[in-house]
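Worked example (supplementary).
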Amino acid sequence: EAGVTQFPSHSVIEKGQTVTLRCDPISGHDNLYWYRRVMGKEIKFLLHFVKESKQDESGMPNNRFLAERTGGTYSTLKVQPAELEDSGVYFCASSQGTGGYYGYTFGSGTRLTVV
Amino acid sequence: EDQVTQSPEALRLQEGESSSLNCSYTVSGLRGLFWYRQDPGKGPEFLFTLYSAGEEKEKERLKATLTKKESFLHITAPKPEDSATYLCAVRNYNTDKLIFGTGTRLQVFP
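After joint prediction of all chains, the assembly is encoded as:
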């Protein structure tokens, strides 16, 4: 079974530019989550999709972040315009059901550096 | 507010030297405490989920235990390949999101 795939693995952009991160969950997993780890801090929740619907977006920092999940398959996270404080590692996770009973599988992350 | 605190921040062990990692938590209705292992450049890799006080789970040299206030990850006779960052996270009854601690960075020397 293929795992959670994230692309790109690294991205370096200038302040003010736009970046789009992509996540391909495990096939059949309706639940998709985005998390972020800023240097020196803990991993923090950003949002949760159930199929194509946003179930919880309470962790999104501001309106410069836009997440979509087309047709309930892959998801994108766009940052526009990027700021220095957006630097960090963005993780995607997927789950077969809610509640963690089936486990949350994480991707390897996208390391975003805004200069 | 739900919170997870892990200690120590870093731990250096000699191969074979057993020890424990601590995860203290406050949560409004625990619906799972999760342990993950993370290697450099990789995402968190699932180890265990514990749901109620008194529960224990084992995997190879690792054993996780849970009380009403904290969880321990016991590492018995560690090997260099156990070197990694170990993350603890909790989930409450109201949401389907994980609240992570900052992790314990474990280094095991031969």
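Two points are worth noting when inspecting this output. The mean pLDDT of chain B is 96. The interface with chain A takes residues 4, 31-32, 34, 36, 41-46, 49, 87, 89, 91, 95-103 of chain B (CB under 8 Å).
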